[in-house]
From TrEMBL:
Pfam families to which the protein is assigned, alphabetical: SusD-like_3, SusD_RagB
Residue ranges of every copy of the RagB/SusD domain listed in the record: 270-525
Cited InterPro entries: SusD-like_N, SusD_RagB_dom, TPR-like_helical_dom_sf
KW Ligase (keyword) present: no
The protein's name: RagB/SusD family nutrient uptake outer membrane protein
Amino acid sequence: MKSINKIIIILVFAAAIAGCKKSFLDRPSNSQISSNNFYKTTSDLRLATASLYAGGQWWRWNRNGMLPLGDVLAGTGSFGYSNDLVQLFTRTITAQNSYVTEGWTGLYSLIAQCNTVIIAIEKQAPASIPLAEKNAAIAEAKFMRAVAYYHLAVYWGAVPIVEDNSKLIENPLLVRNITSDVYKFAANDLTYAAKYLPITDEKGRVTTWSAQGMLGKVYLTMAGLGKSGSRDQALLDSAKKYAGNVCRNSGLSLLPNYADLFKAQNNDNQESLFSLQWAAGVGYGNGNDLQTWYAPTSDVLPQKSGGWQSLSPTYDLYRMYSAKDTVRRKATIMLNGDFYPELNQAAGGYKATGTGMKKHVIGNEKDNNAPTMDTWSSIEHNSYLRLADVYLIYAEAVLGNNASTSDGNALVYFNAVRKRAGVDPVTVLDAATLRVERRVELAYEGQYWIDLVRYSYYDPNNAVKLLNDQDATHGRIGFTYDPVTKTATRDTTATPTALPATISSFTLPIPASELVSDPKLTQPPVPYY
């Protein structure tokens, strides 16, 4: 397993991707991007930043981090096998856990690539390239780097901050930086991105609204750090400012049909603020293979291969959906008897025979008119930030330290999310209502554990209680569904029991391979600023 030092010193860039038509998905070759003759034109800059939207470094996190850490760890997805996934589900995580290691490695690989692009533009780009173009390209790279550091801070807390890869050649042993400074670093990168990214850009690229939406999320998370019992009002105000600006001034709107968000023909729709730009036919380790690993059956997949680790919804997730919340439920999880005409169309559609994940399962190459789509390369551009998320961030920032709120603006955006789902509006908001809404809206998008960590910062006792109540009362456990009686019955013995949660449960261990290569990671963290 490569250590962070090796990853940052020896960068791995995505191979060039061939498509039916030219787009920013066409990546430069390895030899191009590492050449001293690169970064000489605006086109070079656009190619360099295009490499940050997909490829091997995102593949590691997208497959091994986003769902396993964001949803399995949170009790949204259930596994009865695969030892490392069971560790996440049962809170018996070791430093050798492959998902912990791959998640860490993937994020630092992305950071290394961002650092290289930023420094190369600063040092190599000639004066003939307009300054606005240079700043915008750097802003794209800083946006990506901020997303990576935000996830590192959420999952691991204090981690090393690296912004110049070359310094590791002389001093490869890193110390960790305090968690608040990791968030501050991410916020600084996003502030730069918000200033220099354009209002609109080529479809699929991030804009100032992407950066401001992420700033809202980062500030909302920072607001509770070390503030047991309350949140920092100034940081809540910053979250409200940036998220509110996206809500009111971006001109963006929710896609009318929730289920359409997760169909490839709607990639990069008006609700998408940041999505990975996956392409077909790129081979193992470079594409989007979420559905290959987590679909309930191989029948709906390209070449009928995959569906090896069905991500079964937990009973605890299922019970979050109200009786009217059928649109989101069916687009997110399959229940016995559900019919999906868009999957396996050549055979007349697909009828589910058990429970499983639906989100990210988009079907085979024929369903998507994508002949080069294969086992390892779904063409879904899965989103890491979308407008509904920002709407809910804004509502939570308005709620802030209050027990409840009836603020009109917060309710407008909160209820817009519910209206799209076909469920009744609410007249008052509290923290529990927001958590449930975020959970069902964003299930299987890697968000629920992030929400729980944010909760643990300012209300640790109740955050721990929530996890333990989830286990004892409702079950981090699977269930069966009878389509005739329309009743769900929770399992009783199929899933291992989770260990009791403590506040330390909200921080992942540093991978063992990293500790071996860098013993300084065991030392107390130090300030970066």
